[in-house]
Amino acid sequence: MKKLCLVLLLMLGISPVVCNAQEVLPLIVKPGVPGDDNIPGGNVKPKSPILVPVVYLDGNVLSFDESLEGCTVQLLDENENIVFSHSIEENQTSVTFPGTLSGTYELQIVRGSITFYCYIEL
């Protein structure tokens, strides 16, 4: 129900939520990816629902319960520059962001042609 409310708020143009420590992050599919109706040729509907990964942030540690093997975790600054990127390996359950990073970042988890994102505070 919470995810549905977040999606509805975003559709109404309300700003994304910035998450603090020890929270489940409200990841959503980033607009403009294949299958999105907002890009030319992007109206191909997936055959099954997109499973959004469940990830947690505790300080500068991003953790996840299920395998995200093959996904890439990225942090983008306010100018959309990638300031951190890491490929998830087999059996890896967390990613530690450098302690030198502080402020608000766009967290992206890239799984094939789908990008999930939200904003986080480090």
Describe the model.
With 122 residues, the chain is mainly beta. The protein is built from one helix and ten strands; from the N terminus they run H-E-E-E-E-E-E-E-E-E-E. The protein has one helix at residues 2-11, and strands spanning 18-19, 23-24, 28-29, 55-58, 61-64, 72-76, 82-87, 94-96, 104-111, 114-121. A hairpin with a 5-residue loop joins strand 6 and strand 7. The chain starts with a helix and ends with a strand.
Which features would summarize this protein structure in a list?
Immunoglobulin-like; single chain; 8% helix; 122 residues; 1 helix; mainly beta; four-stranded antiparallel sheet
N-to-C terminal Cα separation, in Å? Answer: 27 Å
The CATH topology corresponds to: Immunoglobulin-like
Mind telling me the CATH class? Mainly Beta
Assign a percent range to the helix content: under 10%
On the 0-100 scale, what is the average pLDDT? 78
